[in-house]
Amino acid sequence: MDIPLTITETQKGLLEKKFTAVDLVDAYLARIKAFDKDINAFITVSDELAYAQAKEADQKIAELGKKAFEQFPLLGVVTAYKDIFLTKGLRTTAASKVLESYVPPYSATSVERLTDAGAICIGKTNLDAWAHGSSGENSDFGPTKNPWNKEYVPGGSSSGAGASPAANFSLIATGTDTCGSIRLPANYCGLVGLKPTYGAVSRYGIIAMASSLDTVGHLTRSVDDARTVFNITKGEDGKDGVVKNMPMTSTDKKLKIGIPKEFFVEGLDSEVRKSIDEVIEFYKRHDVEFVEVSLPHMKYGISVYYIIQPAEVSSNLARYDGIRYGNARSTFSDEAKRRIMLGSYVLSSGYYDAYYLKAMKVRTIIRTEVNEIFEKVDAMIAPVAPTPPFKLGAKVDDPLQMYLTDVYAATANLTGIPSLAIPSGFTKNGLPLGFQLMGPRFAEETLFTLGEMYQKETTFHLKAAKL
After folding, report:
1. Is 12 an annotated catalytic residue?
2. Measured between alpha carbons, how far is 29 from 50 in angstroms, rounded to an integer?
3. Which of 180, 181, 380 minimizes the C-alpha distance to 262?
4. Radius of gyration over alpha carbons of the chain, in Å?
5. Is residue 446 part of a domain?
6. Given phi > 0 = left and psi -120 to 50 = alpha, else beta, which region is 352?
7. N or C end of the chain: which has fewer CB within 10 A?
8. Could you tell me the sign of the dihedral formed by the alpha carbons of 308, 309, 310, 312, in that order?
9. Within 13 Å and on the Cβ side, how many CA atoms surround 325?
10. What DSSP string describes 206-255?
């Protein structure tokens, strides 16, 4: 069977009895069995759970017909969870040997909400261990490869979450974004990736990386699907104190997009630049106004991020003492040790003021600059990464070069604003290209509107990798 590419296609086929939910699980598992040994998108495949949930979905459709999809908006949607989301009774490793055999006693809020909406869990996807990375090469279970070309990285840290929908191993996948960890895999794998507003989606049940930066989102093929999943996962759960039920702002007026001049400078790959120029021309033809804006302090953004993030990582990883659960601390891989040491250093006596406190002050300045820009524009457009996907192993021996992959992603995480990554074409070598739209806090709806405008007249998001 041809695997459907959107939620609407999936549910239309189920309703019209072109296939059953069990048939869908059969098709996805067959692809995983045939191709994932080369891609390594999954750490754990949950075939028994998937079949049980699929049978339940088929029963609901038989009993309720069309009303089943009104009650359960993700009914029959095969979903892969980044292996940093706790799943009750299903192994959760954070791609680290420290948690190699950990089975959590409860599920993350977002997992519960997606399951309650009818989503079918096909398994847990690979990632850079503890979400430390931007390429998918830092996993203790081996690197994930890009389905479009297996010699290239899929982006990280949500590497398996990007590879899975791109390879048609699942319809959607969940991810976390601390500095581009959803948007980079989306960009490198030809998908839509949503990094929500900080405080829009609960982090409860997500293994923490850097708590003031972590956001919980997802990867899909279409913007419409991204909106559907977001509307299910967002909102207060009484367990994450930063989450608020804020009204999602949108506008019917003529939209205005800012182009940050600091983001379009030397060092940006020519194919990335050309693709975004074409996107800007598209929006101009659709009556969207563009103005140049400036983020003068954003040049310090990646430096600020790589002070704040390791500091919070060192604090969060301190709980893994190898006593209550998990393996000994000696099991931590090199990247985790590197971040623990960096974080401990910048928080230590005599260095806290020089590094961490100063970084927090610059973060406040950057947030002020971004807020001032959004008084003039509805969104900003930017690259997701400075280059298209790079070859596996190209940056492994140079952590600083790898960290610079995050240079365009840091703005949204440091300031807590939402960002939507959207595919916009391919390189001459057939690798995906894309762009990101950033908006004010809780302005996801504006980003969805702009994204859907683009996808109504383009088909990049509906092209599948040939395995």
Report:
1. no
2. 9
3. 380
4. 21
5. yes
6. alpha
7. N
8. positive
9. 11
10. BPPS-TTT-EEEEEESSHHHHHHHHHHHBS--SS-TT---PPPP---SPP
- Number of domains making up the chain: 1
The token duo for 9 is 């296609």
- Give yes or no: 159 in active site: no
Q: Which of 46, 60, 82, 134 is catalytic?
A: 82
N- to C-terminal Cα separation, the chain: 16
Would residue 320 count as lying in a domain? no
Q: Is 51 helix (H, G, I), strand (E, B) or coil?
A: helix
Nearest to 283 by CA among 432, 37, 78, 447: 447
Among 243, 179, 183, 241, smallest CA distance to 213 is for: 179
User: Taking 90 as the threshold, does the pLDDT of residue 402 lie above it?
Assistant: no
User: What CA–CA distance (Å, rounded) separates 219 from 232?
Assistant: 14
Structural domain includes residue 137: yes
The answer to whether 184 touches 156, Cβ cutoff 8 Å, is yes
Instruction: Encode pLDDT of 269-325 as tens digits.
Output: 999 999 999 999 999 999 999 999 999 999 999 999 999 999 999 999 999 988 888
Q: Indicate which residue of 107, 181, 202, 424 is catalytic.
A: 181
Say if pTM beats, i.e. exceeds, 0.70: yes
Spatial separation of the C-alpha atoms in residues 204 and 85, rounded to whole Å: 9
Percent of the chain having pLDDT more than 90?
91
Residues 6+ apart with CB under 8 A from 442: 197, 200, 246, 247, 248, 249, 418
295 CB-near residues (< 8 Å, 6+ apart)? 260, 262, 263, 366, 369, 370, 373, 411
Task: Please confirm, yes or no, whether 275 is among the known catalytic residues.
Answer: no
Q: Spot the catalytic one: 96, 157, 275, 419.
A: 157
Which domain CATH number covers 394? 3.90.1300.10
Pair of tokens at residue 351: 């260095």
**Is residue 330 in a domain?**
no
Q: CA–CA distance from 410 to each of 33, 75, 106, 359 (Å)?
A: 36, 35, 31, 13
